[in-house]
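User: Here's a chain of 306 residues. Predict its fold as tokens.
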Amino acid sequence: MKSLKKNNIIIGVDGGGTKTEAIVADADLNILNRGLSGPANLRNVDTLTAVENISRAVDLAMESISGVPQSVVIGLPAIKEEFSSGVADFKKELFKKGIFRRVSRNNVHIVSDQEIAFRSGTDGNDGILVISGTGAVVRGWRSKKDIKVSGWGYFADEGSAFWVGIKAYQAITRAFDGRAKNTDITRNAKKIFMFKNAIELNRIVYNDFKKVIPELSIAVDNSAKNGDSVAIEILKEGAGELALGVNLVIDKLNFKKQFPVVMVGGMFKSVIFKKEFQRLVKDKNAIFVLPNDTPAIGALKIAKKK
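Assistant: Prediction complete.
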């Protein structure tokens, strides 16, 4: 493949729970290439694995491009919370890898995944971000105020795909036992995982619960579309939990004019989930934004300003 020579290269990286995406662009945000690799969420993988996956994604994105990036922004979950003390060690390992060995250390910036997700939907500084993917979080900014709600990980991210998947698994196993009524979620889950009964599903779930549980949310949405009351109730409850967090952040930030509510994550592909969430957000100044761009584009926008 012929090498493309470019000056003023910038890179945006989204290190997620299931994959890492790196995008290379020029200074005008014209996308030159993309690279994908495995997860980089430090809650799920160790530092060396995260570093390896980030480096691999960036190297793939730079595969046909010559030059040294002038600015690299990497968005990572929880990096500003429980992992803030490890940023220096993280960077130390990163600068041993691939293209990072040639990048100025002052030009690599590690930020919250929430910041890059917000920027994927708006160019403004004030507003609210709602993530409902594998995990869930609500975060809002106004002037110098910064408020975060939820985002505590697998076992406390109400309204996330993981939370919805747990509810689905409980509904299936309760129905199997006879403790609850049958639900169409079971049939749709069988289409995805090809199990014959709840015992086989149990084996599949515990073999790789981090992957399987969120995917059960797809079965919930498909069942809700078919009118299954159990599935509809799960989606509405999850949407309500997210809206509760948004309304709390709105009250604390006290917006005086219109502001964006940027909705990021796979759960917002569910029409029932999205409509219920929007119905329950009470502020009339809220402008709902479903970004066309990925969070890695948000990282690029930040990189351009660095």
